[in-house]
């Protein structure tokens, strides 16, 4: 797997980030501010997803990962959860057709066993249909949790080699079992809605991502807001433990 040690090479931030991961937060508050039911915010949130997928593809992003439903979101009122499930189902039916036409590959990561058989089937169909596409890879994190991901990766690792010597377990042994092993780690993490936390998103993979927080509620996040996040990213200096001077004269020392 070529992507495992993505903290070894320092990507040039003057380029568009290769992998953007977003916590799409603030749908409920967007709606409440307008005296609408919370779920109206989720519907508008789907419009924002469409806009950001399009803009990401147009700007040359290779991987876009969207946190749609966390392993903790089942704690919400039953009617909001069932609305989100219906919206997810509708999106899988309608949006996938458009994505496929735009050469987008769709992946869904998370503990999918908890979804209805119908949703699980739609996910399998959508992934199969778009598997050969070579453009942007859009990953939807659904019933996803970073801790779940680490635990399922450990279980898979041990199931494959039950006699594994603990001393031999390094990053390259565990990482291939993570749900998103097909993607490099996110260069840029975005959270909308004003909260500044990770909320159990990609815990392993965000180790060295650049973090960007905005007060903009997700339904209002669009191509212009994405460009602001990219502009902020371009100002960053990614060092992965090195000093600034080493980045100017690479290869002098400390390549490990
Ligand atoms: C994010 O918006 C969408 C999901 C978690 C599904 P929220 O629904 O969390 O919106 P706020 O944070 O309550 O405003
Ligand atoms: C995080 O949003 C999960 C998603 C965006 C799907 P939440 O709004 O559920 O996060 P917390 O619980 O407030 O941190
Ligand atoms: Mg929220």
Task: Describe this protein's structure.
The chain is of the alpha/beta class and 256 residues long. 40% of the residues lie in helices and 13% in strands. It is built from 8 helices and 6 strands, in the order βααβαβαβααββαα. Strands 3-4-2-1-5-6 form a 6-stranded parallel beta sheet, with helices on both faces. It is globular and about 55 Å long. The relative contact order is 0.20. The protein has one domain (19-247): 3-Layer(aba) Sandwich (Undecaprenyl pyrophosphate synthetase), CATH 3.40.1180.10. Helix 4 links the parallel strand 3 and strand 4 (137-144). It binds 3-methylbut-3-enyl trihydrogen diphosphate (2 copies) and magnesium ion. The site of one 3-methylbut-3-enyl trihydrogen diphosphate (IPE) has 10 residues, from helix 1. GO terms for molecular function: ditrans,polycis-undecaprenyl-diphosphate synthase [(2E,6E)-farnesyl-diphosphate specific] activity; magnesium ion binding. Belongs to the UPP synthase family. Catalyzes the condensation of isopentenyl diphosphate (IPP) with allylic pyrophosphates generating different type of terpenoids. Homodimer. Keywords: Magnesium, Metal-binding, Transferase.
How does the SSE layout of this entry go?
Layout lengths: L18 E5 L3 H7 L4 H22 L3 E8 L7 H24 L3 E5 L7 H14 L6 E8 L1 H15 L10 H4 L13 E4 L18 E4 L9 H12 L9 H5 L8
Parallel strand pairs: 1-2, 1-5, 2-4, 3-4, 5-6
Bound molecules: 3-methylbut-3-enyl trihydrogen diphosphate (2 copies) and magnesium ion (MG).
One 3-methylbut-3-enyl trihydrogen diphosphate (IPE) binds next to β2.
């Amino acid at each position: 797997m070529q992507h495992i040690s993505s903290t070894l090479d320092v990507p040039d931030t003057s380029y568009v980030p290769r992998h953007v991961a977003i916590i799409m937060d603030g749908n409920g508050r967007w709606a409440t501010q307008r005296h609408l039911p919370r779920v109206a915010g989720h519907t508008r949130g789907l419009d924002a997803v469409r806009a950001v997928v399009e803009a990401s593809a147009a700007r040359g992003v290779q991987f876009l990962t969207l946190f749609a439903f966390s392993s903790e979101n089942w704690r919400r009122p039953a009617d909001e959860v069932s609305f989100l499930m219906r919206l997810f189902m509708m999106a899988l039916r309608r949006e996938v057709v458009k994505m496929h036409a735009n050469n987008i590959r769709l992946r869904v990561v998370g503990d999918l066993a908890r979804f209805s058989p119908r949703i699980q089937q739609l996910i399998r169909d959508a992934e199969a249909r778009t598997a050969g596409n070579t453009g942007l890879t859009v990953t939807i994190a659904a019933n996803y949790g970073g801790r779940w991901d680490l635990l399922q990766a450990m279980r898979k690792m041990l199931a494959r080699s039950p006699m594994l010597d603990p001393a031999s377990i390094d990053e390259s042994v565990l990482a291939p079992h993570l749900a998103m092993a097909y993607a490099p780690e996110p260069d840029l993490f975005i959270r909308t809605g004003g909260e500044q936390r990770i909320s159990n998103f990609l815990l392993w993979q965000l180790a060295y991502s650049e973090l960007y927080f905005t007060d903009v509620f997700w339904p209002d996040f669009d191509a212009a807001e994405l460009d602001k996040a990219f502009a902020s990213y371009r100002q960053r200096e990614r060092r992965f433990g090195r000093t600034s001077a080493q980045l100017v004269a690479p290869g002098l020392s400390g390549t490990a």
